[in-house]
Recover the amino acids of this structure.
């Protein structure tokens, strides 16, 4: 619980072990365990799926992240990500954010094809081992929790996505942690 | 021999009673869509992770192969993820969709509830995205499939198309909101299932996602 009556909850994803392998069908391209839409090597949208853990490390559900460019009022075409957090025993949360760094899949200097941004040790992590993915909350486009179902019904709020690089092995394979820090409160519409 | 015959009669009676279950009369109808209905289609070619959308999978009897297993942990053992290319709308480009689903906790064959809860995230590159939340009761195709199986024709639902109703007690499928060009989007959606003969017993088959944007 936090001072305003809401609550904070953190969800964690460990990569690569929590990645759920998706298989590209006709019209998509493979990007490691993720799939994407791309033209001339430029990715326009991608989807990743992960096992979702609670802060104690227990697998509690599934999470998907889609990343794409989108038209935002007053900001033009910017990159953003949507998250679905599905905890079968509790319900689902729908999140959306404008991204700070570019997290679209990209070509890897040493591997064929596209890889998720977190796997790009040479490029993505050159700025440091901790990356806040959620852009600063300018114009109301930071990390927003749009809606929840079941136990999360009637809740809205904000969240932050952070990636922590834990290891790069000799082959350039990365290992790390994604943290989704959510801050939930009753939606204004539903407060009696 | 007598025991086998008795068991056969019991199975036949059981399936008959389940199929004629009057509770189904009180189930909600498929979500009604008014206005301009948009239709996006896809067909599952088996590209999913998690439990198969078959009677065995929905009853928790089909254990996914290692390649398809999402996780062995209890909380997500019967969850399913698939990424699909959604096409067919003449005014919108092809979209990338991800669908997360889980077995509905309220499933009960005796109450004709046999379904999943579904969450969709659909992305139109350069435009925006929508997030959808709903559920689907697969009881009608299961019932028809069981009758078909009893007649020796395999588990083949007989209707050409099933408009899937939400599970009783759950709210109608709707938009959890959108982003970008769909930021003000609201509306409802439903899924339709068309059995594919080549994959009898698979409730994914050929699918249509129909929705209206308000």
């Amino acid at each position: 619980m936090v001072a305003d009556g809401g609550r904070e909850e953190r969800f964690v994803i460990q990569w690569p072990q929590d990645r759920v392998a998706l298989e590209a069908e006709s019209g998509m391209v493979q990007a490691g365990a993720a799939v994407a839409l791309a033209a001339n090597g430029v990715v326009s949208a991608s989807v990743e799926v992960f096992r979702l853990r609670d802060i104690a490390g227990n697998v509690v559900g599934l999470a998907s992240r889609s990343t794409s460019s989108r038209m935002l009022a007053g900001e033009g075409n910017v990159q953003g990500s949507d998250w679905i957090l599905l905890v079968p025993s509790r319900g689902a949360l729908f999140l959306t954010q404008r991204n700070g760094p570019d997290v679209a899949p990209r070509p890897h200097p040493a591997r064929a094809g596209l890889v998720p941004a977190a796997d790009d040790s040479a490029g993505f992590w050159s700025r440091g081992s901790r990356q806040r993915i959620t852009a600063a909350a300018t114009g109301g486009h930071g990390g927003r929790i749009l809606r929840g179902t079941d136990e999360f019904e009637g809740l809205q709020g904000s969240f932050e996505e952070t990636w922590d690089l834990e290891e790069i092995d000799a082959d350039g394979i990365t290992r790390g942690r994604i943290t989704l820090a959510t801050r939930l409160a009753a939606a204004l519409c539903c407060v009696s | 021999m007598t025991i086998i015959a008795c068991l056969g009669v019991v199975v036949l009676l059981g399936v008959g009673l389940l199929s004629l279950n009057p509770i189904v009369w009180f189930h909600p109808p498929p979500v009604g869509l008014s206005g301009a209905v948009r239709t996006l289609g896809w067909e599952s070619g088996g590209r999913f992770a998690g439990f198969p959308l078959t009677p065995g999978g929905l009853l928790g009897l089909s254990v996914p192969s290692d390649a398809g297993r999402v996780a062995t942990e209890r909380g997500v053992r019967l969850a399913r993820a698939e990424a699909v290319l959604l096409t067919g709308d003449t005014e919108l480009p092809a979209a990338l969709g991800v669908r997360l689903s889980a077995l509905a906790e309220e499933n009960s064959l005796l109450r004709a509830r046999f379904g999943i809860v579904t969450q969709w995230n659909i992305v139109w590159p350069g435009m925006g995205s929508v997030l959808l939340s709903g559920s689907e009761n697969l009881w009608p195709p299961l019932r028809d499939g069981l009758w078909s199986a009893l007649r020796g024709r395999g588990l083949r639902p007989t209707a050409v198309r099933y408009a899937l109703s939400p599970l009783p007690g759950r709210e109608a499928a709707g938009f959890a909101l959108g982003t970008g060009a769909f930021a003000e989007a609201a509306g409802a959606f439903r899924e339709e299932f068309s059995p594919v003969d080549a994959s009898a017993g698979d409730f994914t088959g050929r699918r249509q996602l129909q929705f209206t944007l308000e």
About this structure: Helices of chain B lie at 2-19, 55-58, 139-150.
